[in-house]
Amino acid sequence: MEEEKDNVLSAMDIANETSYWKSVIRICDAVSRFLDTRGYWDEAIRRNKQAAVAGEFINDEQSVAMCSGRAGTILHQRGEYGEAIRTYQNVLSAFRKIKDDNNVAATLGNLGLIAQSQGDYAEAQRLYNESFELEKKLGNQNGIAVSLHQLGELSLAEKDFNEAEDYLEQSFSIFRKLGNKVSIAECLESIGKLRFEQERYSEAHPLFDESLEIAEALSIKPRIGSVKHSLGVLSEKQGDKAEALRLFREALSIFEELSSAKAEAARQDIERLESESS
């Protein structure tokens, strides 16, 4: 796909210029995950907005909401919370209007992620629970696993390690049965963070390593940056400041390329270690 990216996006532009709106949407649907995981976030936002406009031309409310929601996810990852919230709220209203409960549940979870990012744990809990209950009603195993993972991450943030372990292990088990490697990598990193918080450092390292191996095999650039940062935190804790600094710098390089909200934390880690060694 990497070799064909420019050709595919050129085809999308041609479809847009010639008003083949359905083709614009189909191409965007096909290429969006690739653009997101490979780190082409500017392009991903632009293309999803382009496809959302195409959907408006043909009154395709489902496509407008789907494309807008994908753009909202990247805005969230960049820390543009205000615009991401506005986008998700519009998307949620659209999915509710067309009675697309699967995507209602997913969007509630995404709004919960933003609330958690902003430190509003009570609102995050409310949104995660609403999403989880809907996923269980639908019997959507992947959605159930996503909700369990989100609840686990929230419990971890609140230092409730027993509850975090229960949620994350359930989530990981489902993702493994489904063969969802992208989510398996995410879950492995989360369990690694839990082991770190429990001071079980020798158990955290192989979990991070496995997550990184999957992320690198699938070229999931945001996950690669995230795990390298996690490994840097672990290396610093274990006293290997040179290795920690190397990992923080590699993570920062990826975060800056993505304009990720995680860049600031990596930058602060580097500045702290450099000041300690000077």
SSE inventory with pairings:
Blueprint: H1 5-17, H2 21-37, H3 41-57, H4 61-77, H5 81-97, H6 101-117, H7 121-138, H8 141-157, H9 161-178, H10 181-197, H11 201-217, H12 221-237, H13 241-258, H14 263-277
Helix pairs in contact: 1-2, 2-3, 2-4, 3-4, 4-5, 4-6, 5-6, 6-7, 6-8, 7-8, 8-9, 8-10, 9-10, 10-11, 10-12, 11-12, 12-13, 13-14
What are the low-pLDDT stretches, counting only 5+ consecutive residues below 50? none
Helix content: over 70%
Biggest sheet details: none
Number of strands: 0
- Strand-residue fraction? under 5%
Q: Give the SSE order as H and E letters.
A: HHHHHHHHHHHHHH
Q: Which structural class is indicated by helix and strand composition? A: mainly alpha
Q: Rounded to an integer, what's the Rg over CA atoms?
A: 19 Å
Between the first and last Cα atoms, what is the distance in angstroms? 45 Å
Number of helices: 14
On the 0 to 100 scale, the average pLDDT is 96
Shape: globular
